[in-house]
Amino acid sequence: MIEVPVYNQAGDKVSTVQVDEAKLGGEVRKNLLKQAIVMYHANQRQGTVRTKARGEVAGSTRKMFRQKGTGNARTGGIRNPIKKGGGHAKQKHPKDWRQAMPQKARQLATKSALLMKFQANDVRVVDTLAFEAPKTKVVAQMYKALGIDRSCLFALAERNPNIEKSARNIDRTKLTTVAKLNAWDILKHRTLLMTKSGLDLILA
Predict the structure, then answer these.
(1) Are 81 and 89 in contact (CB under 8 A)?
(2) pLDDT (tens digit per residue) in 63-73
(3) In sequence order, what are the beta bridge partners of 154?
(4) For the whole model, what pTM was predicted?
C-alpha cells in the first residue's frame, strides 16, 4: 500500500488515502513503458516529405545535343538528376510513422506510469475544487501551496469549463481527464495533479 496525502486548495493536508499497488499492475513494467513511449513519440511525426522525380519536373524530354562529335560528355534530357533543376534520383515520399499497441498493453503501460508517479511522490491529490468563475490567480496560488513549480499534468474527473479556463494559461500545464490519461503525458510532466474523485475513478 502507498499512502497518498490529500490536500485542500490552500495546500493543507486534510486526510490520506491508501493506494493499492495491485490496482495499478503491482509493479512498474519498464519494458512496456519504453514500448509505449516509443509508440507515442513516433505517432507525433508528420512524415510529410515530398520531392519530385525526373518525370515530374518541368522541362523537355528532348536530348540536349547529339551523342557524339560535340566534345561534351554524353547526356540525355534537361530533367535528369545531375542537371540543375532536374528531378531527384531517389525522391522522397510521404511516410506514415505510426505504430500501434494492443489496448490492454496501452492500459497496462498507463498503470505502470501512474504507479511510478505514486512511488516517486510526484502526485498531488486535492479533495475538492470549487471555482465560481475562471480565475488563473487561484490556480497559481494552489500550485504554489502544493509545491508545484515545474511541468504539471492536471487530470480532472470530468470536464469543467471554469477550471479549464483558469489553468490553461499557466506555463507548462496540460489539462486532461482521468479517462484520457496515457503513459506519454504522465511521464512527460513532472507532477500529476488530480482530485480525490479522479483518484477514485482510477482505483475503481
Answers:
(1) yes
(2) 999 999 999 99
(3) 175, 193
(4) 0.80
